[in-house]
Structures are given as C-alpha cells and as structure tokens.
Amino acid sequence: MPKKGNTKNIALVSAILLFSLALMTLNVKQEKGTGFLDSASGFILSPFQNFFTQSIQSVSHSINHYFFLVDVAKENDQLKLEVQRLISEKNQLVERLASQKRLTKLMAYEEDWEKKAVVASVIGRDATQWSKVVVINKGTQDGIRDHLAVVTDAGVIGQVIHAGLNTSKVLLIVDGRSAVDALFQEDRVSGVVVGMGEDECLVKFVPNTADVKVGDQVISSGLGGIFPKGLVIGKVSQVSKKKQGLFQEITLIPSSDLSRLEEVLVLLF
Amino acid sequence: MYYFSQILVAIFIFSAQTTWLELFSFGGVTPDLVLVWVVYCGVRYSRSSGIGAGIALGIIQDSLSGGLLGVNTLSKSLIAYFFSTLKGKFFVEGMIPIGIFLIVSSIFDGLVFYFSMGTILKGEVAASFLYQSLPVYSIYNALIGSFMFLVLDKIDSWLQPTTPNPYMRMRI
Q1: What is the ipTM of this complex?
Q2: Does A17 sit within 8 Å of B74, measured CB to CB?
Q3: pTM over 0.80
C-alpha cells in the first residue's frame, strides 16, 4: 500500500502536468484564447519596460555621444543610417526594374509605403531565453493587428504575433517558429527562410541545381500574404551541397541587426 | 509589506529580463532570472509557497514571452516542486550546492523547451542547442544565480529581521 506522502506527491505532480498541458492545448487550439493573459501582463509591465529602455538608451547615448567621441559618433550614426537607406532604396529600385522587365505592373503599396506604416519603438524582449520575440510600444489603438510585417531600414525583422491595446509582440525571423517565403534576388530561385533560435536563419527547399553563392541577397517573395514582395531579408553566409538529397543547405545572416533593435516600421497592409 | 515587496521584486526581475539583461548576453545567451528566483523560492520557502511561486512565475513568464503558453508553467512549477521536496535531503547552503541546483534546473528548463518546440510547435531548433547554448545557459545561470541568492537573502533578511537564520525562514 503506497504511503500517504507518496500519494500526495503523485497527485501534486499530476496536477502540475495536467494544468500545464491544459494551458498548452488551449494555446494551440485557439490562438485568441490566451490573449487576455498576454494583454494584462503586457499592460502592467509596459510602463516599467518603457522606463528601463529609455533609461538605458539615454545612458547609452550619453556615453556614445558625449563622453567619448562627440562628433564622430553622431556622424557615424548618420552615415550608417544613410548607407542603410541607400541600400534599401537601391534594392527597391532593382526590384522595380526587374518587375518592369517581366511586364508586371508596379505594386501600389511600394509607392505609398510611408502612408501605410507605423513607426514603433522596441520596449522589451522575450521573458525567456529561447523565444526570439520583441515587444513594441504600439498596439491595436494604432491600427496594429496580428500577422503584419515588421521591418527596419535594413530589411525584414519579423511579424506581429499578438497585438495588445498599447503593446504588441513581434516574432523575429530568427525564431524557430518563423518561416518567410523568399527569393534569391539575382537568380529568382525560391526558398523558405526559417529561424533556428540563433543569430542566423536557414534557407530551405532550394534545389541542388540552383546556383547560389555566398553573399547573394535574399528578398521576400510576397507569397504567404504577410511580407510584401521585395523586402530584403538577408545575405547568404554559407552554402553546402550534398551529393545525396534534393536540396542545398544554405545559411543566411539577417540584414537587420536583430540584437540591437530600437525603432521599427510596422507595415499596415 | 512582505507581499508588496515581493511584487516589486517580481516587477524588477521581469522588467530586467525583458529589457537590459540582453546587454549581458554571452554568445547570444542571457541568464534567466525568473528561473533563479523559482529555485530560490523552492529552496528557501515552505513547500506550498515554493510550488505556488513556481506556478505563478511560470504563467507570468509564459504570458510575457511569445512562446507556447504552459511550457514555462510546466518547467518552473516542476523545478519548484523538486527543490522544495529535495531541500530537506540535501545541504543547500553555499555557492556550490546552489550552483549545482541551478545547473540542473537550467538543463531541465532547456530540455522542456527543446521537446515542446520539437513536438508541439514543430519549430526549428539549431543543432548546436544541446551542446552549446544549453551548457552556456546553465553555467551562466549558476554564476548569476549564486550572486542573486545572496541579494535575495539580503532582501529577505531586511524584511524579516527577527529571523536571521535561513533555516528559520519558512513561511506558510
């Protein structure tokens, strides 16, 4: 006959397991079912996150801009932004040219990007080590909803996975659950950019016959309905072709520095 | 006063975890202050308080992360349960036992994520997760956690100055 203490322990562990599995099932079965918890915790914590983020940024800016190299740091920042803007502009132009060559119509959203985007600040990161998610300071009040693309000047960073009232969660492209349909800009070969939970992504389903080189630029294909066509995702950092198998193993470095995100653009279309 | 201070500590830990702790990432790995606090609650508080704290902190962490709700609830509550059960059988004072507890709990926490990602979410996990990220995460947690135990002990001793002996600090 089992001891009373053992029975109590078994009951306790079973209760913990059942409760956790019930939460997971609820989360998987109905995406909206757990939104209340997300929104409530985000609402309570967002003022503190804002405070910490702004404090860090102001301290960081003070150190960068005043204590060390006042003018050089500022100029460097401006030049970096300018370079990023020019690269982004060049890519957009290359894409437009390619589209015209193929006699397709220019997409209307490329012309009025600025009218249909919301600028947001990153105020927090995921509360766990493993998920690659950031929290932005804009929510449904600003027109943000789930599954909108989020970009920076340098390129795609992810998509909104939960839009709260004042804050939203953005799943970064390096997260293991992220998948973005993509094209190699030069060869027009398609693939799927998936995250691995680290700083790099994989490009899957690229046939062995495709001529992919290190340094090739990868852009969004527009398929999937979340990311508009032509947004820069990153550059190929490693290519490995297996003798057996249908697909190449390609590693990609995202064009945006996902560890240092401050301001982002949420595309409202 | 005691519960109010615990809420303040919780707000500080979750705010730090989601904002500036990223600045101290090593090889893309940041320590998990919530995990350390759960182990602390399991080791220092009474069994029911420890497990309760594990469940509550796990749910809050789940809701503040973009992952699957329930994963951290499961890992944190089981960690709190095991340490609140085991603490009577081991000597848990000093850096080394605490460090070992934190390493074990970090590995368990990482493995729960790994299996949930692979089975329920069907997501990708880098091949280096088990032999690179997880060991770094465990050691980092152990280093930060040992220091954090000292700080949390200090806070507790301020709040309960009449019971300086850690073995007497059991709460209902």
Answers
A1: 0.76
A2: yes
A3: no
